[in-house]
Amino acid sequence: MLINNLELSHFRNYDHFFIEFDKGINILIGGNAQGKTNIIEAIYLLSVCRSFRTHINDQMIQFDYNFAKVKGNIYSNQRNHQAELVLSKENKKAKIDGKDVLKISEYVGYLNVVVFVPDDLSLVKGSPSTRRKFIDLELSKISPIYAFYLAKYNRLLKERNQYLKLLSKKNGKYDDYLETIDEQMVDVQLKVIEKRENFIERLSKNVKDVYKSIADNEEYVDLHYLCFIKKKDKEELLKLYKKEFSRDLKYLSTTHGIHKEDMKIMIDRKSAHQYASQGQQRTIVLSIKIALLELIKEEIGEYPILLLDDVLSELDDQRKTKLLDILNNRIQTFITTTSIDGIEHHVIKEAKKININRKEKQ
Ligand SMILES: Nc1ncnc2c1ncn2[C@@H]1O[C@H](COP(=O)(O)OP(=O)(O)OP(=O)(O)O)[C@@H](O)[C@H]1O
């Protein structure tokens, strides 16, 4: 999978901008606040119709304008496609090969990307919801049926919580209607659990190897799925919902379910959340992202694009070299950095260097 070029109109600090990319490594070099991350953001936006920085369209539209356009020529599935997104303050309109795309699900998949941004360190240090969001987003990209199950579960969960409110005003007993919702919730959860389990197990296998090669030591990283139920069985789950009914009714919300799960990240069999240093956290997250590349390739048959925002400055020289050793021309990669001075690595030497500075913005 490749993005051949990118055209921006009134996107962030870009008025009109056109850029062509190399199919290997592209390094975006420039001082602070010049617009390097904005380019990474635009590529990401073109991929999943949303930004990794904001959900407010207006923030991405150039100051004093009322629309922004992001366009790119993509090579995927052995074909070239023109992807286009127009952002207004209220909505986003997508086109593929000049035709309007009405459903996001029909758009996502043309351009698959894996992104690493400094904020991703929250994958280790943040709350369970950060890790759940990561799993849900990545799994939805490679498995549309997972996205379907998840959306169904969220609808049922909302319905259940609303019904609990209604019940609390009435007789407050577990009734047939709630049982019907619970049965549907249990069925869909078992499917989500199976997918999450498989995803985390496969990712964990890849992460171990990637971490070892970047850190170049014997530290051992693995991932564990913290499922909310031990015995993944329909009857057990239904029993749990009945048992916890009074508590759910008291708090007017559903205590147990896949909306409360987590993924535990371990380093040398200790919780990375509690013990990992900044450098270890960064290496763990990077390893997870790089491990994802192989997993996506196995699923969709093509490598996604890799976007690395400001990754070089925070790694020590040894980890920097090891990371660059791993990157290669099989995967189109974008790296933003303020400087490449002093990095003597063939990957840097051979990469396409793109200077991003105020003079080149327009
Ligand atoms: N909606 C907008 N309209 C115009 N300019 C914007 C908009 N949003 C952000 N900017 C400008 O974009 C610039 C920041 O760009 P970006 O985040 O890509 O920087 P960067 O080159 O990655 O910098 P750093 O190295 O500091 O991370 C800032 O000058 C900011 O004012």
Estimate the helix proportion, in percent: 40-55%
Strand content: 15-25%
Please give the alpha-carbon distance between the first and last residues: 28 Å
Query: Mind summarizing the main beta sheet?
Result: 6 strands, antiparallel
User: Which runs of at least 5 residues are low in confidence (pLDDT < 50)?
Assistant: none
Report the bound ligands by name, code or SMILES: adenosine-5'-triphosphate
Indicate the overall shape. globular
Helix and strand succession? EEEHHEEEEHEHHHHEHHEEHHEHEHE
Q: Overall pLDDT, averaged?
A: 93
CATH uppermost class of the largest domain: Mainly Alpha
Function: The RecF protein is involved in DNA metabolism; it is required for DNA replication and normal SOS inducibility. RecF binds preferentially to single-stranded, linear DNA. It also seems to bind ATP.
Protein name: DNA replication and repair protein RecF
Domain RecF/RecN/SMC N-terminal: 3-340
Pfam families: SMC_N
